[in-house]
Amino acid sequence: MSGAPSPTATSPAGSGPATAAASSITQTGTSAVSSLTGNFNNFLTMLMTQLKSQDPTQPLDSTQFISELVQFSSVEQQIATNNNLTQLIQLTQASQIEQSSSMLGKHATVNSAELSLQNGSSQINFTTKTSETVAIAVYNAGGTQLQTGTFKTNAGVNVWQWNGKAANGVTLPDGAYKVTVNSIGSNGSTSAIPFTVTGTVTSVQSQNGSVQLQMGGLTVPFNSVQSVGG
Q1: What is the 3 state secondary structure string of the chain?
Q2: What is the share, in percent, of the chain residues with pLDDT greater than 70?
Q3: CA dist., res. 150 & res. 158, Å (int)
Q4: How far is CA 93 from CA 22, 31, 213, 225, in A?
Q5: How far apart are the C-alpha atoms of 60 and 54, rounded to whole Å?
Q6: Which of 158, 156, 150, 157 has the alpha carbon at shortest distance from 133?
Q7: Which of 14, 24, 156, 220 is most buried, most CB within 10 Å of its CB?
Q8: What whole-number distance in Å separates Cα of residue 125 and Cα of residue 110?
Q9: CA-CA distance, 28 to 172, in Å (whole number)?
Q10: CA 111 – CA 221 distance, rounded (Å)
Q11: What is the pTM of this model?
């Protein structure tokens, strides 16, 4: 879309988005390993203290000793597993970051309960098996209805575009707005229709260990993307 803000990938200066994601995962993984290692060391200290302090005339029962060694081995394996999982997550997320970075500046269609108003324009897409009467409503973050409309659909894929104007004619700022799509039956009953949202990808970032795409004011997870381009 003309006049669209320059797309950017959120990342520290001098590093790519994949590096930022890997850094975030590394910090989380390091914290988890440190905690587990601390428990491991405490267990080892207690075991050694127990062995040093035992009565030579009444040594530790072999069955109990074996049981504690099994626990010792289990903790050690947990640390190794945690390290391996952390590395796997790093590789997976770095791959997702690289893939999603190629979407910057492109149109993407995603699953979302909100539409993305960018430069005064937004689009949602939905499919109906037959020609139906459909009501679409747009709401702000507080739940106030801003715009609504009813129209007859075509059988198949339908596209609805919003120009960002409220019912009173006021032009609303760009951002994310909740939207609902409902078919209206002959008896007045309503039924929600699934829909997708199309917008321009403006940013890629890592949040809480997952890759997020931004389309203007709308943020969606990477796995919500249905298609890119077109």
Answers
A1: CCCCCCCCCCCCCCCCHHHHHHHHHHHHHHHHHHHHHHHHHHHHHHHHHHHHHCCCCCCCCHHHHHHHHHHHHHHHHHHHHHHHHHHHHHHHHHHHHHHHHCCCCCEEEECCCEEEEECCEEEEEEEECCCCEEEEEEECCCCCEEEEEEEECCCEEEEEEECCECCCCCECCCEEEEEEEEEECCCCCEEECCEEEEEECCEEEEECCEEEEEECCEEEEHHHEEEECC
A2: 62
A3: 13
A4: 7, 18, 13, 16
A5: 7
A6: 150
A7: 220
A8: 10
A9: 40
A10: 9
A11: 0.60
Structure tokens at 179: 């939207």
pLDDT of residue 148: 94
Total count of residues recorded for the chain: 230
Measured between alpha carbons, how far is 191 from 71 in angstroms, rounded to an integer?
Answer: 56
Cβ–Cβ under 8 Å, residues 213 and 103? yes
CATH architecture of the domain with range 107-228: Sandwich (2.60)
* Angle formed at CA 116 by CA 13 and CA 158, multiple of 5 degrees: 140
Q: pLDDT tens for residues 10-62?
A: 333 344 544 444 454 455 455 555 555 566 677 667 767 766 776 666 666 66
Contact yes or no for 182/175 (Cβ under 8 A) = no
- Other CB atoms within 10 Å distance of the CB of residue 102: 11
Residue type, 90: Q
| Tally of CB atoms within 10 A around 181 | 20
